[in-house]
Amino acid sequence: MAYQPQVVDAKIVSNNPKNGLFEIVVNLKDRTSCRLIYEKDAATGAPVATHVNRLLHEPCPICRKDFLCNCMSRFKDQLSSQALQMTGTP
């Protein structure tokens, strides 16, 4: 069974309009929390997700490790699109 992340809550936790960086914390359906870090594209001004970090409240739903892993980076685009639909661009 393939993992399909579903964002149930998203909120913007920091925004720096001077350099175009902002962060969104998302809560997923499986109780996992992630922080998405964005920068705005210089040419178009569109937000681009650069990093995703799993917050260590729950074990990773993919590899079941209870420490740092990079499993969520594979789903960065899916998480980003769902989070931006919920919060919008600051």
In short:
This protein is mainly β and 90 residues long.
Could you give the topology of this structure?
Blueprint: E1 7-16, E2 21-28, E3 33-40, E4 47-55, H1 76-87
Antiparallel strand pairs: 1-2, 2-3, 3-4
Q: How many DSSP E strands?
A: 4
Shape: elongated
Count every helix, treating DSSP H or I runs of 4 or more residues as helices.
Answer: 1
Whole-number total of structural domains: 1
Amino- and carboxy-terminal Cα gap: 35 Å
Helix/strand structural class: mainly beta
Percent of residues in helices comes to: 10-25%
Give the overall pLDDT as a whole number: 93
Describe the largest sheet: 4 strands, antiparallel
What does this structure look like?
This protein has 90 residues and is mainly beta. It has one domain. Helices cover 13% and strands 39% of the residues. It has one helix and four strands, in the order ββββα. The mean pLDDT is 93.
What labels would you give this structure?
mainly beta, 13% helix, single chain, 39% strand, elongated, 4-stranded antiparallel beta sheet, 90 residues, 1 helix
